[in-house]
Design goal:
alpha/beta; Rossmann fold; 7-stranded parallel beta sheet; 6-stranded mixed beta sheet; 15 helices; 31% helix; binds 1,4-dihydronicotinamide adenine dinucleotide; binds 2-oxo-3-(phosphonooxy)propanoic acid
């Protein structure tokens, strides 16, 4: 008999298969109210309200699976779950339409002052002049993040006669063309959009993306919406722009801290808010509950789950053999993703030597997971990497070749983007570790770990010295430095590692050195 704790409110119809299943007992109550029986549960189902902390997981020694009936797993300590050997699954697309529709409802409400007018009429007022609105038709909507939800919003906006401009650094030209949207830089979007809506995950790149630096670039009278995650629009930075009338209206479904108690933004008439309702429809809740209920039952029955965010699907023995290579491959993917800031269409992987005899499909998925991790909202791992790459129009292939590299094992990856192709070569040397031994036909040899910078430059006297001097002047200690070149005086590269990450301003200073072509920070 398996015991399942459903800790947040979920659709009873969606949970029906689970409620009806034999060998399963479902308890519906808050985890905080089930203290004395936590140790008895094998599965935990949550939405965003229950905080699944290391401490909670620690109190649930029988737990095998945590299911998030929704997309964002910010409320689940994924590392803790993985550490405890607990599989985490989610329902990534069941609430897409609902969230897109809610965003649209917020957009029309914002432009037509519907929430304010509703309150006014209910207060026995009939003030038609105070609530003159703005049409959507003919306006430019800037969508930041064209994933599942962003795409659905673009489609709806087009039906309203709205021009759609998209900023998503990971959007390929093919995909943009398929959805008939215009791809733009962030600055172009800020300058041209009448309305800006954000649909990215909350990451270190997206936190405060719409904030003190970007707001002055927006049009006077801009409307802003955040139905993704609190913090993508900087809650403090918008205040002066609301005060001086630069922002005509702001709609928030999410907050940095939820619920937002006595939040300063709530006092503005032109700020409208909902209590994280994006996914709160009967349909979305049915979808997500049914999806996780089915998956949990499958999993408890010993079958594969389709949407795991942390589950490797190999036997322990096979997993141990491929472990060094999957770790290397994940880092290789991650290095390229950070070096190559452009949309990517295809990833081709070549295996040589001893690695070619292993389960390369898993290593390939690791590499793709490493590549996608800096670019997508959901957690990507070996289980879901292929599916997510496909969704994003990225094809991938692997090839086993005879040993041409001279290394006992070698993984070579060519990543084809809209503008360039990036090639990287890695090997694993027993008792020595993972090494990157080639980048774009340059021979190099470095350990892919920690805080790195990758510099492309011209092989001229003094370039390396100037880099060293600037770093020294800023009291930055170079831990390791590798250089590679093809011909004397030609193209060259440097890979430097540090004990801490470098700030943006220092990277800009370095990039201004003559003969430096490009510079990329890599965090592993
Ligand atoms: N309000 C609510 O109730 C709900 C909120 N959400 C949230 O909505 C957001 C979007 O969800 P999905 O569309 O399902 O995710 P998704 O993973 O399908 O799309 C995210 C998109 O953001 C893009 N992106 C990543 N970093 C970026 C950056 N620095 N700049 C611009 N674009 C970037 C990615 O390329 C991707 O296309 C997530 O934060 C999710 O948690 C999701 C469902 C309900
Ligand atoms: O799915 C998501 O990411 C959401 O934000 C929805 O959250 P909820 O399930 O409504 O608590």
């Amino acid at each position: 008999m398996y015991r399942i704790l459903v800790s947040d409110s979920m659709s009873a119809d969606g949970l029906q298969p689970m409620l009806a299943a034999e060998n399963v007992e479902v308890v519906q109550k808050k985890a905080s109210e089930a203290a004395d029986e936590l140790h008895t549960f094998h599965a935990l189902l949550v939405r965003s309200a229950t905080k699944v902390t290391d401490e909670l997981i620690g109190k649930m020694p029988s737990l095998k699976i945590i299911a998030r009936a929704g997309v964002g797993i910010d409320n689940i300590d994924l590392d803790a779950a993985t550490k405890h050997g607990v599989v985490v699954i989610n329902a990534p697309d069941g609430n897409t339409i609902s969230t897109a529709e809610h965003t649209f409802a917020m957009m029309t409400s914002l432009l037509r002052h519907i929430p304010q007018a509703n309150v006014s009429v209910k207060s026995n007022e009939w003030n038609r002049t105070a609530y003159v609105g703005t049409e959507l038709y003919g306006k430019t909507l800037g969508i930041v993040g064209l994933g599942r939800i962003g795409t659905e919003i673009a489609k709806r906006a087009q039906a309203f006669g709205v021009n759609v401009l998209v900023f998503d650094p990971f959007l390929t030209r093919d995909r943009a063309a398929k959805i008939s949207v215009k791809s733009a830089s962030l600055d172009e979007l800020l300058e041209q959009a009448d309305i800006i809506t954000v649909h990215t995950p909350l990451t270190k790149e997206t936190r405060g993306l719409i904030g003190a630096k970007s707001l002055p670039k927006t049009k006077k009278g801009v409307y802003l919406l955040n139905c993704a995650r609190g913090g993508i629009i900087d809650e403090e930075a918008v205040i002066p722009f609301l005060e001086n009338g630069h922002i005509a209206g702001l709609a928030l479904d999410v907050f940095e801290i939820e619920p937002p108690v006595n939040h300063p933004l709530l006092k503005y008439d032109n700020v409208i808010a909902t209590p994280h309702l994006g996914a709160s429809t009967k349909e979305a809740q049915l979808n997500v509950a049914a999806q996780v209920a089915q998956d949990v039952l499958h999993f408890l029955d010993g079958k594969m789950v389709t949407t795991s965010v942390n589950l490797p699907t190999l036997t322990k023995e096979v997993f141990e053999k491929i472990q060094p290579f999957y770790k290397l491959a994940k880092k290789m993917g991650n290095v390229v993703s950070q070096c190559m800031k452009e949309p990517v269409n295809d990833i081709s992987i070549k295996y040589e030597g001893s690695v070619a005899e292993l389960e390369t499909s898993f290593i390939t998925k690791s590499l793709i997971a490493g590549f996608l991790t800096p670019r997508v909202a959901s957690n990507v791992n070996e289980v879901n990497a292929g599916m997510i790459a496909k969704e994003r129009g990225i094809s991938f292939s692997e090839k086993i070749t005879s040993n041409q590299s001279g290394y006992a094992n070698c993984i070579t990856v060519a990543i084809h983007g809209d503008q360039t192709t990036f090639e990287i070569k890695g090997t694993h040397i027993p008792h020595y570790g993972e090494r990157i031994v080639g980048i774009n036909s340059f021979n190099i040899d470095f350990y892919p770990s920690g805080h790195l910078i990758y510099i492309q430059h011209t092989d001229k006297p003094g370039v390396i010295g100037r880099v060293g001097r600037i770093l020294g002047d800023h009291e930055v200690n170079i831990a390791t430095m590798q250089v590679g070149r093809k011909n004397a005086g030609g193209e060259a590269i440097m890979m430097l590692s540090f004990d801490r990450s470098l700030d943006e301003s220092l990277l800009t200073t370095l990039s201004e050195i003559d003969d430096i072509v490009s510079i990329r920070a890599i965090e592993l």
